[in-house]
Amino acid sequence: MLIGEVARRSGVSSRMLRHYDTLGLVRPTGRTTGGYREYSDADIERLLHVESLRSLGLSLRDVGRALDDPDFAPDTLMEKLIQDTRDRMAADARLLDRLEQIQVAGAGDWPAVLDVVGLLRAVHSEHPAHRQRAALRAGDAGLSAGALTDALVAESDENVAGALRWALAQTPGALDQLAPRVTDGDATVRRRAATALSALHDARTTAVLEASLTDPDPEVRRTVALTLGRRGVEAAVDVLVELVAAGDRDVEAAEILATQYDDDGIVGRLVYRLGADPDPSVRLRLVQALAEITGGAASKALTELGDDADVTVARTARAIGSLRSR
To answer: Using one digit for the tens of pLDDT, what is the confidence trace for 101-134?
Structure first.
């Protein structure tokens, strides 16, 4: 079969067939008396193999290796094809998100569309200053909560993240976009989403945050507990007590416990958790937490801690107790 007929029947151009010949991928085994390429049935079969492998996304070099290299591993080939396919799907998903974000922005004319496109590019710029300026302009340009959330969960610069959180707090639909991110498999994404949610002050947000009090990541638990504690949410108390025990933002946690909750109940829970801890530094933090709380229960607990086996704990408790009695 001559090259023209092969091209017509296979859909592979004559130019590409000559290129395959030059590369050694598909070389016609015969020539006519006039010197024209003549393809055998085996040549046609090899051409079909080449085209099949190319349709999977392989380069011509990889196609040649797959067909001719006896040491070529099919598993390696499949891993590469799978990863390449995933990369293309991710790129398509990002493009779809951008297009939807532009549509949601509701730009009514080409200058407005171009402004939104420019802002979307800026919010993902490699330069933090550009990203921050874009975040501060997001409200005026009508950038969607989805676009801002995508930018926020990927943002490592705290100044830019602060601007994005500020923009999100003023953007309709922020909670709906952030809520799924607090259950993300990536702890960093959950931390950023929880911090952004702390700027929203409605019952739905509080319910979403409560569900994260048991998050496996201590930073997420801390952020959520401090936020809910400032709102007087009862479910946050146990985590706040644990922050005191761990010395993790313990002063802030103690102040919240002292100002947002019933004094006697909080004293009981603090003493129960920390009072018998074998670590003197934990008991010392208990003393310091009790110093923030007024009322008879706190005074009684300080008196008892004045007899603590650790000298520093005992002295600190007695000193605070004597100041309270004046």
So the answer is: 666 656 555 455 545 555 566 566 666 776 676 6
CA angle, residues 156, 159, 160, in degrees to nearest 5: 65
Percentage of the chain modeled with pLDDT above 70: 80
pLDDT tens, position by position, 74-109: 666 677 677 777 866 775 566 566 666 666 656 555
Q: Which of 155, 141, 126 is nearest to 165 (CA)?
A: 155
The torsion angles phi and psi of 38, rounded to 5 degrees, stand at -130, 125
Tokens of 101: 């974000």
Measured between alpha carbons, how far is residue 284 from residues 19, 246, 296, 312 in Å? Answer: 80, 12, 19, 8
For the chain, the farthest-separated pair of C-alpha atoms sits apart, in whole angstroms, at: 119
The pLDDT of residue 280: 95
List, in sequence order, every residue forming a beta bridge with 30; answer none if it has no partner: 38
Count of beta carbons in the 10 Å neighbourhood of residue 11:
9
Please tell me the predicted confidence (pLDDT) of residue 114. Answer: 47
Q: pTM, whole model, 2 decimals?
A: 0.61
Contact partners, residue 180, CB within 8 Å, separation at least 6: none
Report the distance separating Cα 53 and Cα 56, nearest Å: 5
The C-alpha atoms of residue 258 and residue 240 are separated, in whole angstroms, by 11
How far apart (Å, rounded) are the C-alpha atoms in residues 37 and 44? 12
The label of the residue with tokens 């644990």 reads 242
